[in-house]
Design a protein that fits this description.
429 residues; 0% strand; globular
Length: 429
């Protein structure tokens, strides 16, 4: 029988353990606490820089085509190379962040990306421009691979969704503002000056990010074990539900990437013949996507995950069909619907990945991001090819085909849930 002193010692030890555990939890950042505002603003700026750089040439493709004397499909590689490289490198970058730290990798990634961004305006040929953009995309892969992991480690669980929301807001603001700024600057001084302006803004964001982001206190370095990583990736890819979610993300992004890569060409041609500044301002439509993504949770609560995906697909389809009409108000309404449908579908699919993966969530999310950016790269290239072959109707046909894929995959998920309900937790309600 244990002595009283032993029992007291055990009790004190247990109490000390609970106290130290509580202290560890309390030391994480929380809204209103020290460091939280700095952390939130730092990651917001990182998101702005990432997406402003990633899509810096998208609104400028007609000018790039004219400058280098290339077709829309060739110019679209300045977007596809960046997003494709990001898709390829996001998983390796997630592994590097486990070894060297989230803040270290994000800082290095931004440093390389902004340095390349300052070289992009001096590209002497379309080939050099595409190569520089590929390097830039590979470097930027370190941001999505590390930011959410940093937040999960340094922020209290109850504040995590809000913190991630601010980072995503930075993404959308960067993607939107980069396109709008380049459109107006390019109208006056050309695409090279416009891309240089984005590079300078990104440098300022990167410097402020490094100065503001608090040093990590809860990061524990891990070893780079390729076998463990390969096994985790293999297990995720063997999960039929995760495979469907990855495909849905890729297909939605194929629609979005194709539409926004080609829309500049459509609006510069008759009957619209809009100036570059106005075309850049079209990307303010992204604000609609920010709203639709933020309300996806309430949509799922009302319609279920599959119902939300069907609604997102239907909204995107309606937008694609409206955009065929040679009326600027209807084209703009079509873009609003496409953007709202895409962001809602993306929010549902990406959140379902986290819900489905019970282990290796970082790798599961990295695989989703990889599929997502592969879809962006494919959409940019195939959308431009379709436009070259069949005009705007060709790009719309590609988008409708991708939406049909989303609906088909969702129907397969419904069938699987009926036949094997215990294996379909994420989309079963």
């Amino acid at each position: 029988m244990p002595s009283a002193s032993t029992g007291a010692s055990t009790t004190v030890g247990a109490t000390s353990s609970v106290t130290s555990s509580t202290a560890a939890v309390d030391s994480r950042l929380t809204p209103g606490g020290p460091g939280y505002r700095r952390m939130s603003f730092a990651l917001f700026l990182a998101g702005v820089a990432t997406f402003a750089l990633l899509y810096s040439t998208q609104a400028l493709l007609p000018l790039v085509s004219t400058d280098f004397g290339v077709s829309a499909s060739e110019a679209s590689w300045t977007v596809s190379a960046a997003t494709g490289a990001l898709a390829l490198f996001v998983l390796p970058m997630s592994a590097l962040s486990e070894r060297f730290g989230r803040r270290t990798l994000m800082t290095a990634s931004l440093a390389v990306a902004v340095t390349v961004g300052l070289l992009v305006p001096f590209a002497p040929s379309i080939g050099a421009l595409v190569a520089l953009r590929a390097v830039q995309g590979a470097a930027l892969a370190g941001l999505p691979a590390s930011a959410t992991a940093y937040l999960a480690e340094e922020v209290r669980p109850k504040a995590l969704i809000t913190a991630i929301g601010l980072f995503v807001a930075g993404n959308s603001v960067g993607g939107m503002s980069g396109r709008v700024i380049t459109g107006w600057v390019a109208q006056e001084w050309g695409w090279r000056v416009a891309v240089a302006a984005i590079g300078i803004i990104a440098v300022a964001c990167a410097v402020a990010f490094r100065m503001l982001l608090p040093a990590p206190k809860h990061f524990t370095p891990g070893s780079l074990r390729p076998r463990v990583l390969a096994r985790t990736v293999r297990d995720h890819l063997a999960n039929p539900l995760l495979r469907r979610l990855y495909a849905i993300g890729a297909l939605f992004m194929m629609v979005f990437g194709g539409v926004y890569t080609v829309i500049g060409y459509r609006l510069t041609e008759a009957p619209f013949s809009l100036p570059q500044g106005i075309i850049g301002s079209i990307f303010l439509v992204y604000l609609v996507g920010t709203v639709s993504a933020s309300t996806a949770g309430r949509l799922v609560a009302r319609l279920g995950r599959r119902g939300s995906l069907y609604l997102a697909g239907g909204t995107t389809t309606a937008g694609l069909l409206l955009s065929l009409v040679n009326s600027l108000p209807l084209v703009l309404l079509g873009l609003v619907l496409i953007t709202a449908g895409f962001f809602a579908g993306h929010a549902v699919a990406s959140s379902s990945v986290s819900h489905t993966a019970k282990q290796g969530r970082a790798q599961a999310s990295a695989l989703y991001q990889s599929a997502y950016y592969i879809g962006s790269s494919a959409g940019s290239t195939l959308g431009a090819v379709a436009f070259h072959v069949g005009g705007w109707a060709g790009t719309v046909a590609l988008g409708l085909f991708a939406v049909l894929g989303v609906v088909t995959i969702t129907l397969l998920g419904s069938h699987a849930a009926r036949t094997q309900p215990h294996r379909e937790p994420a989309l079963a309600h």
